[in-house]
Amino acid sequence: MSAPADTRATIIPCLRYRDAHAAIDWLCRAFGFQRHAVYARDALVLHAQLSYGNGMVMLGSADGISDWGKLIVQPGEIGGRETQSACVVVADADAHHARAVAAGAEVVIPLADQGYGGRGYACRDLEGHLWWFGDYDPWRQP
């Protein structure tokens, strides 16, 4: 059996963006991410790591030519649909919602109390990726 690594987070969502530099700026401004590392060559972001608390997302430029890039499509290429999304636990869902809306995030599921506990909302980022933000922490619930 394979054991998980002894690190902060063992699952890190990875995303691709047509304009990864703009996405990095926007994700930091709208959602509160912090630049952890950005490796770029001119307009091409080879790899970037953005942190939020003890979580992280990794991202790069959508290229369609690398081995990984050939396997990824953008939401705009498939009618705005996604096959997965990131769920981010925030301390104050209302304040986070206000910040994201002010930065232009498209809210697709309104901010509301959830039947399983907590409060949250879903939105799209500047290139259409879906995100869920809420204060429900599955690690702290009974």
Task: Provide structural commentary.
The strands form two sheets. The chain has a four-stranded mixed β-sheet with strand order 1-4-3-2. Strands 5-8-7-6 form a four-stranded mixed β-sheet, with helices on one face. It is an alpha/beta fold and 142 residues long. A hairpin with a 2-residue loop joins strand 3 (44-52) and strand 4 (55-61). The model has no long low-confidence stretch (mean pLDDT 94). The protein has helices at 20-31, 93-102; strands at residues 14-17, 34-41, 44-52, 55-61, 86-89, 106-113, 119-124, 130-134. The protein contains two helices and eight strands; from the N terminus they run βαββββαβββ. It folds into two domains: 1-72, 2-Layer Sandwich (Signal recognition particle alu RNA binding heterodimer, srp9/1); 82-142, Signal recognition particle alu RNA binding heterodimer, srp9/1 (2-Layer Sandwich). Helix content is 15%, strand content 36%. 23% of the residues are buried.
